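User: I'm writing a short report section on ligand binding and want a predicted complex to refer to. Could you take this sequence and iron/sulfur cluster and write out the structure as tokens? A short remark afterwards would be nice.
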Amino acid sequence: MAENLTYKILREHLVSGELKPGSEIGIRIDQTLTQDATGTMAYLQLEALGVDRVKTELSVSYVDHNTLQGSFENADDHRYLQSVAARYGIYFSRPGNGICHQVHLERFGVPGKTLLGSDSHTPTGGGLGMLAIGAGGLDVAVAMAGGPFYLTAPAVLKVNLVGQLPPWVGAKDIILELLRRLSVKGGVGKVLEYGGPGVEHLSVPERATIANMGAELGATSSIFPSDENTRKFLKAQGREHQFRPLAADPGAPYDGEITVDLSSLAPLAACPHSPDAVKSIAEIGPIAVDQVAIGSCTNSSYRDLLLVAEILKGKVVHPRVSLVIAPGSRQVFLMLARSGALAELIASGARILESACGPCIGMGQAPPTRGISVRTFNRNFAGRSGTADASVYLTGPAAAAASALTGVLTDPRTLGEFPRFSEPERYLIDDRMIIAPPEDGRGVEIIRGPNIKPLPVQEPLPQRLEMTVLLKTGDNVTTDQIMPAGAKILPLRSNIPAIAQYVFAPLDDTFARRALETGSGLILGGENYGQGSSREHAALAPMYLGIKAVLAKSFARIHHANLVNFGILPLKFVDPADYQRLEQGDRLAIEDLHRQLEQKEITVLNKTKDFTFAVRHNLTPRLLEIVKAGGLLNYTKNKNSPSGDLS
Ligand code: MIC
Ligand code: SF4
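Assistant: Sure. The structure tokens for the complex follow:
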């Protein structure tokens, strides 16, 4: 039977379940990646799982998020990560080597393999024809220990690309167009599989930009076929032997199809404060810009930055604008330096940052008060830049560079002739900043700084819950609102008691104190609760504060999984109108909880207002067992046989 590419890869990796959209499946994971902000927790969890060495084909630990070392915490975490990688058989990409997704694409990604990463933008690997999925750190730890990754078999949406991009219109505009049409919820439960005649005009780095931002659609993953362009890219990376052609079978079935005519696209921007608030730059008009930031896992490939250098060449940035540029990887950085393009960037007045996430995650370069920042990044949620009242516009690199010169948001088509580049025949290959693990790591000492606190433990789910509604939120609450990042808070990622003090700080800075006082809390959410990052701290820290359940209209995939993993009950309204009847401060009780969880509907008593209403969950029997056990770590430890077989 004809199959699409997504289901071909799923079938090759299927360990359990029936391969049809909506049912729970378990798949074998070939590769994993972690980054430092989620990695410390993931490796503490791997240690707790008690295996001797990772069981994947390849696992890589990157350091790219927490690279500002204002105090000892981040440097301590880096040292911990390096030692734990050597101990358990994991490659370690040192600080300065680049952003995990960019480096993984360049040096490790292989068509047809599965990749699980503790970062929501892991699907960047889809640009190479991998099935790459973002997850919480605990899911990645279990995969490293040899356990399957469980997910709801996705629906597959075919994105049919036709035509060719006009000059000055780029890959970022393709994904912004999809965000404009489908919204930040449009990809939930789906894999976006790209196809059609337009695909062959896109290089692997361009495909990676598109696959990367599928995360903003809420998609489980995004994937491109593996074709001659893929071979060319792998060859240029000295890895042609890892090439394997892959495509959907002719006439393969899809659960939907959407066509984008590339030739009809114009330069676009996502307006504050959501990646789907997309308009054409011409339509937004020449608003004054204070900052331009170029980089991130979305747009910092060699080609992207060559284009920027070409635009800036011989010119200087506008007096109002601070331009910062972070090359995506050391490979990109070195190639810019060797080609002379870096000199053009420096001469233009650009402030060059190290190869890391940097401003994308609020690690420095916060814009001024009420500042307007134009960024080539993927998220523009309010406050994420580090300045609460700043406005961030997301564009491609050409528009960003043009705006840096003019001081106003600028359509790059006004710049004249488009400089065309082809991908290099050969990238500069130097893997000396990637440390391979020793054959046997058993003698390696794991180094822990004082900021690395033990994992908090969760008790099994009780038979009766009485909870106070601690916060009522609206739709599309992001994990940046639940558990903010930035230079001040990120260094606390391995210290849950300390980081928990900031839970919901952007919405209500009394939340943590009230939660701890109450001891048993519930959060009320709207649609798409927990969109954005994969950070499990958005579940782990609330768990530490005594949150027992989240009741929402709907959930984002990774956050829903993280809640389950830490033993917090994700509940949904049977009648969404009941949301209106609940308020902050209400006391809610659920009796006979375990029995009720086996049923379709669960009765909740609002003790404050004296009425009952119904809620439900969509947990499979396995997920239900995990919540009852108090989370995945308890569940896995209970199940773990002496051989360490987690399947
Ligand atoms: C992000 O872009 O929000 C992050 C920081 O990369 C997160 C991971 C994290 O919070 O550590 C993500 O996208 O998953
Ligand atoms: Fe890093 Fe930003 Fe990419 Fe997240 S989205 S991995 S913070 S560059």
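A remark for your report: The domain at 465-629 is CATH 3.20.19.10 (Aconitase; domain 4). The chain has a mean pLDDT of 97.
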